UniProtKB/TrEMBL annotation:
Organism expressing this protein natively: Arabidopsis suecica (Swedish thale-cress)
All residue ranges annotated as the F-box domain in the record: 6-46
Pfam families linked to this entry: F-box (PF00646), FBA_1 (PF07734)
Top-rank taxon, per record: Eukaryota
SMART domains the record matches: FBOX (SM00256)
InterPro entries reported for this sequence: F-box-assoc_dom_typ1, F-box_dom, SCF_F-box_component
Protein name: F-box domain
Amino acid sequence: MIMNGLPLHLIDEILFRMDPKSMAMMRCTNKSIKSYLTDPRFGPQYPPWVRPNLINLSSSDRSLVFCQPLVSSCDSVSLEYRAEFINEQCYIFGSCSGLLLLYIGHLFVANPLTKKFRILNHSGSKLLPHIVGGVKKDDPYDPNGPLVRTERAMCVGFVVDPYRTTKRFKIVCILEMETKYRFEISDGDSWRLSKTTLTTSSKSGLKTRMKPVYVDGNLHWLRNDWSLIAFNPETEQARLIPCSFHPTPDTKVLFAAKDKINPLTLISGTIKEISIYTLLGNHKWTLERQIKNVSMEKTWLKCWYVVAYDGKCLVVLENNMVLHVYDLEADSWGVLGTTECWSEDFYKFTPSYFSIEEDEQTKVNVASDDQQISYLTTIMEVIDTTSQRDFTKRTSPRVFTGTYRSGHFRCFQFNM
């Protein structure tokens, strides 16, 4: 094979421009490439998608952007994190296949690794303008009055199909109306209501701050009665999955999924013990494993949360400052990092070279004074851990030029 005689740096460049499916095929068809990819030096030296990251974007009057490599206690990589303040309220709505869906004055789909992004027109959505612009007392989708925006972000699902040549993404918003649910969908160009309507026999709202989980082609939302709503963005079929669960009042809960294996997972934790449940075909949450919770000093303990799980690592946030990681294979706890987090909303992000495609008819430029674009660039730089630069002391992002026409979209690439 021609690649066998190439210099290592060229092999790196080729491999890191492949999507995961193509890389998996290379591992199966070429012994030297398989050996190269399984070399322990490969992961620590080259972080793209081999090394996932945890990102947190906390907002009040300004936003703190935080990125931390998600590594186990056995990984020999630097545990330094990157963080930076920007003077704008920002919200992350989803992370999938190396792409982010986030709001900073505009709704963006962005790839922090390639520095490409699109601006999406969210005005056609029935839900998103209420989340990013606040809600009123008479809002039909929030009969109990206004909620914190991040609490309603769980109504937004973001999925990317990595196996299609077009690398399509979809945004799915679930609309709650008593016992009835509707779904609105966007592929980046327009918004429409699905013909699908799901009616349940009992009223139960979605659990706040509990992000939907994408497994087996379906988005899953967790309800307060512990049942699930599943929606397939391709077929637009929806169904209710009746489940039961009985946690104690002091239990911390995380809804997640394992990487690759992908069964739906429910993490139930107390200050003493954390239990991992998986959902079986009989719609029962079955206990898979119990572990002793990390030792936290009760004298100083104000709050703690289970913030991430992928089947290999489980992450606990203590006092919004210390991240503890449990390595399921080594059966041991370690400190992942320390930072100042205002929110327990963490997203797992795995870098990729997936493209962000657009219609040539809808391209526009962005205004040179559009501060939100420069904030987006800062966020992408912080999250892009493939760059070795330190952003922890930066105070302002870069600004670049262009023109903007409202209501259209544009894809950009920046030379870093």
